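Quick one: structure for this chain?
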Amino acid sequence: MEKINILIISYYWPPSGGSGVQRWMYFAKYLKKLKCNPIVLTVDPKFASYNLKDSSLINQIKDIETYKTYSLEVLSLYSIIKSGDKTKSIPQSYIPNKSIFDKLSSFIRLNFFIPDSRIGWNYFAFKKAKEIIKNNKIDYIITTGPPHSSHLIGQKIYNKYKLKWIVDLRDPWSELFYLKSKFRFSFSKKINDRLEYKVLENADAIITTVGDRYHKILSGKISNPNKIHKIYNGYDKLNYDKIKEIKPSKYNIVFTGVLTKNHNYEIFHEVLKILSPSKQNLNMVFTLAGRIDNNITKVYSDEIKLINKGYVEHDNAISIIKSSHLLINFNYKETEETDMISGKLIEYLASGTPIINFSNSAKESHEVLKLSPKSFNANINNVKPVVDFIKSEYNDWAEGNYKKQSLKNIDSLSRESLTKKLLKIIKGIK
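Got it. Here's what it folds into:
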């Protein structure tokens, strides 16, 4: 049987770090094992603007055919001013409003670089894509965003070659939460909405990381809602099982990922104030790894001993997760309507560790966490049940009764299983 040739267009690719990179890195890895031929088109790291780097991920994609191109980074001036390096400090999604310069940059980016600041890659990517298509019998193209400008490359390829096209929305496009609080001219919003509509309408299949409410939003925008599918970010069982767990001497509460003022972090501070690990001399520590707002760590440090490891490579993050006694997940305050499911949450589940999920209305994450009998969906307005849960878990550990769970259906969320689901969607395109 002839192999299926799939062109994957992704701005973020190793050595870039983060969950968005891992999603298609693992899809490519397992598509290859499933007798497909994934071909990746990405930006040359020398010209890319990566907010995060993880060189360890390169080992995962050594046998994947990859093409890299030049990119004109339109916000490189912002990066130079902020860090002295044109390839650093440009946020993946938006620019924070910390100063007048930040606010001005945000205004320019949102109103004049539509849909995003990575639009300078499109010319070079499309030129290379034409070359790849000419030299290979490409059966399908896949574009993943953000940056959602990558989908405009897919649109141009679709217009020229009429190839089967799958659009992957790792985050919402026009519904992205921070857009609600930013000033945009009506013309820039209209242009963005029109670009989104054209992409969604022309795509043969649309994949998202969540379903439910976001699917309802997307369904209202296009003529054929049946082409919308959900595929979570998963965990790579082969790699996960290899990573060693370190036995901590203290009861180890762990958070990994991004933690900002936009997350529901305040309730955990209230929990810690009541629990008072420092005052009660509980043998307890809070370990954080990732991009953590310094102001938040200062808030927590008054109540509990903190270990802040900063951003770490993915394998190291998994080791930290596996070495935990309790895992914490904070949902975004402003994104309850989209209910994002991070790959981190799946990796939490794979560890078998009890999980506290701070969110009121994130139904999708609540559903996923049903896989774990010891997951706790915390109401952000009710502190006492959370305190009682932690006390119970801590006492079990202190008495030597702590034991991790073995989850029955976790393999359904492995990267390999999810890639099989992806391939079924691809082959189902008429």
